[in-house]
Amino acid sequence: MKKVLEIIQKTMKNLIIGASIDLSKLDKSKIKEGKNGAKYYDVTLFLSEQANQFGQHLAITTAQTKEERSAQTKNHYIGNGKIVFNSEQPMVEKQVDNVPF
Fold first, then answer.
1. Number of separate domains in the chain
2. Fewer beta carbons within 10 angstroms: which end of the chain, N or C?
3. Which residues contact 49 (CB under 8 A, 6 or more apart)?
4. Is residue 2 part of a domain?
5. In-domain check, residue 27
6. Cα–Cα distance between 16 and 86 in angstroms, integer?
7. 101 belongs to a structural domain
8. 3-state secondary structure the chain
9. Model-level pTM greater than 0.90?
10. What residues make up the domain containing 60?
11. pLDDT tens, position by position, 25-45
């Protein structure tokens, strides 16, 4: 696992991705209620370095359960997005001294 993290850190770029979800496509039965009444909808993001025919780099689907993945259920696409900023600079963790906490 450590080697995978090192590879990700070396190749990770600073990205800003703009995306939208078509709310009419949400499967209402998959909305989960969390603590204090908050509601959540699990999604899966597919990011591609190459844009599709519409200039989009991101596909958003409803997250699948383990059973749905095992049954090879088709993904339910609910949205998409595109990279709006891409920096060739690697992401670097900075050490900050004199932090009051």
1. 1
2. C
3. 57
4. no
5. yes
6. 7
7. no
8. CHHHHHHHHHHCEEEEEEEEECHHHCCHHHEEECHHHCEEECEEEEECCCCCCCCCCEEEEECCCHHHHHCCCCCCEEEEEEEEEEEEEECCCCCCCCCCC
9. no
10. 14-88
11. 999 999 999 989 999 999 999
